[in-house]
Amino acid sequence: METASGDYGAFMEKFTLPPKSAQDLPLNSLTFAIKEIFDVEGYVTGMGNPDWARTHPVATSTAPTVLALLGAGATCVGKTVMDEMAYSINGENIHYGTPRNPCAPDRVPGGSSSGSAVAVGAKLVDFSLGTDTGGSVRVPASYCGIFGFRPSHGAISVSGVIPMAQSFDTVGWFARDPMILSKVGGIIVQLPDIAPVRPSCFIIAEDCFQLSVIPYDVVTQPVVKAVEKLYGGDVLKQEILGDYVKTNVPSLKHFMSKETTDQIYNIPSLSALSSAMRLLQRYEFKNNHGEWITAVKPDFGPGISERVLDALRTTGENIDTCYSVKRELHDALAALLGVFLLFDSRGMHTDHRFWCSHDPHSSRASPKTTNKFV
């Protein structure tokens, strides 16, 4: 193992996985790095913690997403530092060091895919892979001044990726160049070549923007003007997202409280949604890793240890309600935004909704039109 001390502290270890040799492949000559949560045959997948690496064998196969990128002509140059167990959003690691933010050296890089974001931001690779459970691609991308893409849950295979909380885990990616971001997405999402479609509606979540310290008009007007120029003002729609969620996700009432309802800078239904998400995340993390943690008693850094302890204390109370909230929210957003169904080789449909840190639009589309949620 080659442990990297330089290179902005982004790399856990460096190696070379060569691509296919054809010169006309879409990612030919591009390099990439992967978060230390992806399996690579012959290497231990360490998940950001030395005790995990010490107690787990080398991987016997490589994650399909990594193989797809190699097959498209890209070269993998190593694994990157991550927050332990993917259980933080800061990007710090007490064992391996915190990758240095190339955009703001005096600030944290954001996590948990910190090394992958830093490797791209520091121009060490052309793109990189991370995972996003609760913001772990979107946050470090925004902190490091690069593009980060978080696809819909289930749009990309998580095979060969250690789970954190499978109800929310997604594979995401980073790039500095939007064209490279798009090319990588085309490979790993396996999207067919389709002509651009005209949006039928741009939905602005008015109440969410009102929470910002930046005046509402300052934030939204550039988007509004761009949409009006490209598609006309008739496609713009305002939505009070909190009210919509409260009305259409009835199981959420179990997580509503007087405390969240009375807060001034708060949207009660979305706060309740966050509470349900965190409970389900803790529950699934415990089911995935609780037995190993109890047996090994690993050394976790500050912040991580407290979150892990909270997860180990989680019971099954209200978990069925969490899953009901998840299903109801999915159906509610599908109704709001429309449906975009792609069919895989087995004839199964795959639901696609994408989030991008630089361009925070979400889309659900029919074959002819698409809605954008700003």
From TrEMBL:
<dbReference type="InterPro" id="IPR036928">
    <property type="entry name" value="AS_sf"/>
</dbReference>
<protein>
    <recommendedName>
        <fullName>Amidase domain-containing protein</fullName>
    </recommendedName>
</protein>
<comment type="similarity">
    <text>Belongs to the amidase family.</text>
</comment>
<dbReference type="InterPro" id="IPR023631">
    <property type="entry name" value="Amidase_dom"/>
</dbReference>
<dbReference type="InterPro" id="IPR020556">
    <property type="entry name" value="Amidase_CS"/>
</dbReference>
<feature type="domain" description="Amidase">
    <location>
        <begin position="22"/>
        <end position="177"/>
    </location>
</feature>
<dbReference type="Pfam" id="PF01425">
    <property type="entry name" value="Amidase"/>
</dbReference>
<dbReference type="GO" id="GO:0016811">
    <property type="term" value="F:hydrolase activity, acting on carbon-nitrogen (but not peptide) bonds, in linear amides"/>
</dbReference>
